[in-house]
Each structure stands twice: as structure tokens, then as C-alpha cells.
Amino acid sequence: MFRKLAVALALALSTASLTSVALADPGPAPAAARAAKRAKHEKKFPIEAAAFKKHVDARIEKVKARVEKHIADKKVPEDKASAIRAKLAEGIAKVNAEVGKATADGSVTKDEAKQVHLAMREMRPHKKHAKKSDA
User: What is the DSSP secondary-structure string of the chain?
Assistant: First the structure.
């Protein structure tokens, strides 16, 4: 008798706790949470030209440092290293030309920033990146 009562009580308590969990507010849906996080970190356009130029220059310095580190780590021969540096300088010139066009009016729109982004992608040595930028 006591055992049946204990089982019934345990079953009632576990069902009550499950019901309260099921009825609790689950919070924002995962998609809504991702959208809120994305909106928080999304760049606001138009961007001031000076801030955009500063951001692009910082990215270019990171690329230069990464290339130099790779050249040093892989002990690339000087003739190949100079060719790599020349190709990098050519790519940087293209990016700076796009930045010049984008910042000419004092602000940068989203479409202008996309053009700069495509020019930066062309600097990457992987063919898959270059093909995407042509499209």
C-alpha cells in the first residue's frame, strides 16, 4: 500500500515539474536570437570615409604582416619572395584605388564597400576566391 502511494506521489511530482517546464517561456527562437546578434554586429551604412579608410588600412597591414611571416617561416627564396611582394603591392594598389573611389564623396555606402571587398578578395591566391569575385 505504501509503495503504491509513493509511486503515485513520485509520478505526480515528476509530471507537475515536466508541465511547468513545458509551459515556461522558452525565450527567443534560435533564428530570432541569431538575427538579433547579427544586427548588433552589422556595419551601419553609410560609413564615414575616414573611419572606412582606417579600417581598410588596418586590414592591409594585417595582410602584409601575414605574408611576411609566411615568407620567413617557409624560407622562401628571395626571387620568389620579391615576386610575392610585387603581386601583393599590385593588389594593394587596386584596393587603394577602390577605396579612393568609395571615399571620394566623404562617406561610403554598402555597395561601395562591396566593391572594395571584391578588390581585396582578388588579392587572395586561391582560385576559388578569385572566381567568386568575378561573378
Answer: -HHHHHHHHHHHHHHHHHHHHHHS---S-HHHHHHHHHHHHSPPSSEEHHHHHHHHHHHHHHHHHHHHHHHHHHT--HHHHHHHHHHHHHHHHHHHHHHHHHTTTSEE-HHHHHHHHHHHHHTSS-HHHHHHHH-
